[in-house]
Amino acid sequence: TQVAAASGGILHLWGQVSDEEHAAIDHIAAELERDHYTATQRVLESA
Q1: In the Cβ-directed half-sphere of 6, how many Cα atoms lie within 13 Å?
Q2: Which long-range contacts (CB under 8 A, 24 or more apart) does 41-44 make?
Q3: Enclosing H/E stretch for 17
Q4: Chain centroid offset of residue 9 CA
Q5: pLDDT at 22
Q6: Closest C-alpha to 6, from 35, 32, 37
Q7: Helix (H, G, I), strand (E, B) or coil at 18
Q8: Do the Cβ atoms of 34 and 42 come closer than 8 Å?
Q9: Cβ partners under 8 Å of residue 14, min gap 6
Q10: What is the pTM of this model?
Q11: Dihedral of CA 19/24/32/5: which sign?
């Protein structure tokens, strides 16, 4: 999917980004994971 494709692109470039960029990417990934978890919980609760 798009996320997998983006992850592959990020992994390819991972060695070329600064520590600040690494931290930003990690932060965004954590936010997306929390959002996905929250959305999943809402779907399960409404079922």
Answers
A1: 6
A2: none
A3: none
A4: 13
A5: 84
A6: 32
A7: coil
A8: no
A9: 22
A10: 0.57
A11: negative
Which residues 6+ apart lie within 8 Å of 22 measured at CB? 14
- Domain residues for 11? 2-46
Number of residues that make up the chain = 47
Dist. CA 3–CA 6, nearest whole Å: 5
d(CA 8, CA 39): 24
Q: Which residues of the chain have pLDDT under 50?
A: 1
Number of structural domains (the chain) is 1
| pLDDT of 10 | 62
42: helix, strand or coil: helix
